Amino acid sequence: MNYDKFQIIISFTIYFIVSFIFSTNLSSEIKLNEPALIYKVRGDHYRRIGLFSEALNEYDKALTIKKDFPECYYWSAIIYKKKGLYSQAMYEIKSTLKYLKKLWLNDPALKRKQLYYDTLFLEVEVLLLNKDSHETNWTGIIIEKIDKMIAELKDVRNKLGGEFKFYLKYRLGRAYFYRGILEIIKELGESYKGEINISNLWKLTTNQINKIVGHFKKSATFQYKSDVSYYYQYLLYKVNQNKKNAKHSFEKALELNPNIENDYQKHVYEE
């Protein structure tokens, strides 16, 4: 009798476990029957309020339903970058570009083009931040990417007008800004330890300084991080003992951002 009761208890236990697993899987399937856009929007909400793990989970659900959803890959890459998980970020970036190129052929919309260039810039930022993966001439490789981007942006900007033309002007400024930063890093070589300041800029020659200032002038003109662009001009002019231009650049930087002396380093890789 006790044995029979034991068998009944075991049977009911197995039944409830199997039922629970089945109902859990079924409810997951029902949830995933919602449109991919619903999960993407929910992921965006979680991302904006700083719940990154929840956001990634929602983006994954969206991609389970719709694999060619580049926006989900892009925002996942942004989150991984914020977390310092650069390998995962780069994987998501490659996926974004892969599906964007496929969709672009059939949908040459402005929004897709904007996402395409934002993803290229994100790739550059991750490469800059991922110091562990830096190889010989890594700055030269990234500079080549940016120069190619600048040429492409100029070409497209000349062909298109209206809103996209304004958008490209800003993105050109962004490209020139990174071009200036990378030129400094390249010229400093092994003496670059992750920060750019007056103490290591003294190593640059007058010709190098003039070239780099040219990049920051363009980024300021195109209104990308104008405060930081003017501040770097100030530092470079100061090193070059050009007091008049140093004073003018410093005043412009302060006018745009009274805290620029404390802020300029931390804003370099922030959008």
Keywords:
Serine Threonine Protein Phosphatase 5, Tetratricopeptide repeat, 271 residues, single chain, disordered N terminus
Question: What report would you give on this structure?
Answer:
This protein has 271 residues and is mostly helical. It has 2 domains: 102 residues, Alpha Horseshoe (Serine Threonine Protein Phosphatase 5, Tetratricopeptide repeat), CATH 1.25.40.10; 134 residues, Serine Threonine Protein Phosphatase 5, Tetratricopeptide repeat (Alpha Horseshoe), CATH 1.25.40. Helix content is 79%, strand content 0%. It contains 13 helices and no strands. α8 packs antiparallel against α10. The longest helix is centred in the first third of the chain and has 30 residues. It is elongated and about 65 Å long. The protein starts with a helix and ends in an 8-residue tail after the last helix.
Layout of helices and strands, plus pairs?
Blueprint: H1 2-31, H2 36-48, H3 52-65, H4 70-83, H5 86-106, H6 110-129, H7 138-159, H8 162-188, H9 198-201, H10 206-221, H11 226-239, H12 243-256, H13 260-263
Helix pairs in contact: 2-3, 2-4, 3-4, 4-5, 4-6, 5-6, 6-7, 6-8, 7-8, 8-10, 10-11, 11-12
Helicity, as a percent range: over 70%
CATH topology of the largest domain: Serine Threonine Protein Phosphatase 5, Tetratricopeptide repeat
Number of strands: 0
Number of domains: 2
**Overall CATH architecture of the largest domain:** Alpha Horseshoe
Strand content: under 5%
Q: Main beta sheet, described?
A: none
Order of helices and strands: HHHHHHHHHHHHH
Structural class: mainly alpha
Mean pLDDT: 81
Radius of gyration (Å): 25 Å
Number of helices: 13
Taken from the alpha-carbon principal axes, the silhouette is: elongated
Query: First CA to last CA: what distance?
Result: 72 Å
Low-confidence stretches: 1-30
Query: Which CATH top level class of the largest domain fits?
Result: Mainly Alpha
